[in-house]
Amino acid sequence: MQALVDQYLQHLSSERRLSSHTTEAYRRDLLLLVNHLQQQAVSAVAQVREFHIRQLLAGLHGKGLSGRSLQRALSAWRQFFVWLGSQRLVDSNPVSAIRAPKSPRKLPKTLDVDQMNRFLSIDDDSWLATRDHAMLELFYSSGLRLSELAGLDLLAVDLSEGLVRVTGKGNKVRIVPVGSMALRALRDWLAVRADAMPPGTTENALFVGQQGKRLGVRAIQLRLKHYSVKQGMDEPVHPHMLRHAFASHMLESSGDLRAVQELLGHASISTTQIYTHLDFQHLAKVYDAAHPRAQRKSGADPDFPDT
To answer: Residue 40, Cβ neighbours under 10 Å: how many?
Structure first.
């Protein structure tokens, strides 16, 4: 069985050309399967049944593996048996009908409006700060993903119309509005961008580094880390927190989930619905702070004492 796993991994590497990182992840998940089957005295892949897989899944779940990790393992096992079927080594796939238990969905960390204002208050007129200010304003203003921001070209931004053309996941293109403050910051950046470029350098990227080349995702992450410290934020601001802030603030103001879905470029509204929980948290805080009945301490209601 281990020999078959090795052949399959070679197939992933040479024929499907998966990265070494992905192939290694497959190896780890398949090793769990092989070890379990050996413990169950299963010596041939044709002998594997659905209950063997469920038994292993239950054991891993009991050890604390998350639903996401279990889903990844199931996917690796499922694809392994698909390949075995293509090699005519098994007649059926014992993993096909099994689904991993769902993990509780964590709410994304975000920033409130005051925190965002503090983070974006960059008081520096250097070209580097001008670039960073435009970059962060656009990030928050249009709710972009990190990869989308890094991939923007000069022609993607229409300053006169206040729009940005974004290429998202699956190369899907969407047009997103740009707020007035972001437009102002972008105009400031474009006014000095040419001066920041080394002589003779040509680059189509909207945001460039000191060498005149496109600013990559890692460089943008480091700039956010830099301003997290400089602006005295309570915790490091990660790129996705700006996108979360955009979504939650839009939903708090408009209540239009469909519009937020379109702006974020989510294929399914179920992905966007997580922000309704953030919105509810905001409303709950407002209620607790403002409603007189929410402020009373626990105990008997003074208007209706026990008799």
So the answer is: 15
